[in-house]
Predict the 3D structure of the following.
Amino acid sequence: MVPSSITVRAPAKVNLQLSVGPARADGFHELATVFQAVNLCDEIVARENPGGGIRLTMSGEGAESLPTGEDNLAYRAALLLAESLEVPPDVDLHIHKAIPIAGGMAGGSADAAGTLLACDALWRGGSTREELTDLAAALGSDVPFGLHGGNAIGTGRGERLTPILSRGHFSWVFALADDGLSTPAVYSECDRLREGRSVADPYVSDMLMQALAAGDAELLGRALHNDLQLAAVSLRPPLAQLLEAGEDYGALGGLVSGSGPTCAFLARDEDHALDLAVALSGTGLCRSVRRAHGPVPGARITG
Ligand code: C5P
């Protein structure tokens, strides 16, 4: 028997590398990126709502600023799945946010991935992983990774995934900002900063792959790289001081996460992450800090 409510947890991501190629004719940029899922998770609860359509409510940090209609990616995920399954789009969705909003950690994408999984179970859709991944890719570039989790290389606009195995786990400190940054604005700024220069094809760094295979945090710290970082710092100059502070306090590496403004700092281990988190929160350069570790699995049913 299928229960009348399904709970899913869906993780945030950090891009260990984000190599951004030229803008394509469709406006997206060709990417080579390495994703890692980390244990900052949103919780999505889907309940039966016979004849009531899609009702979405949100709670948690910053939730009051998020749309709850078709502007919300999770709402669109439920609608798209209902269309594809040819079932009435009736569900009462509640999302509890722990992933920073508009922070470059794919919180909206995680919610969409979790909603696909939760509604498919609630509506007895029986979709395969592949079918859900295709719907995820139609919703947004980062949504397939929200389903996949772990570590993966993303190509195309980030939606084509190749899993990567890694050893051990990595300890992170995330420094959160007061206000989000718009992803399209950061990509546009990246284009503006590169104007008149030829842009190389995106690539995945060998050093980074070696670091993951060996579980070598020192090496991973040196291999972290984000082509969007200059653009994010150009739009939000104080991020430069935050990144510098992380380095001064002994992070193995630090970078802007995705399109920012959240900054991710790699620590040697959990103890080091605690020290780093305390030091960074004392700088006054960020709103708050979160510790997390990765890799962790993608969206999964927990109840
Ligand atoms: O796919 P998603 O909806 O997450 O993308 C949001 C925006 O980020 C796009 O509209 C585009 O401006 C930018 N983007 C891009 N190239 C990518 C991914 C996203 O230019 N590979």
Remarks:
- The chain has ten helices and twelve strands.
- The longest strand covers residues 5-23.
- Residues 5-164 form a domain with the Ribosomal Protein S5; domain 2 fold (CATH 3.30.230.10).
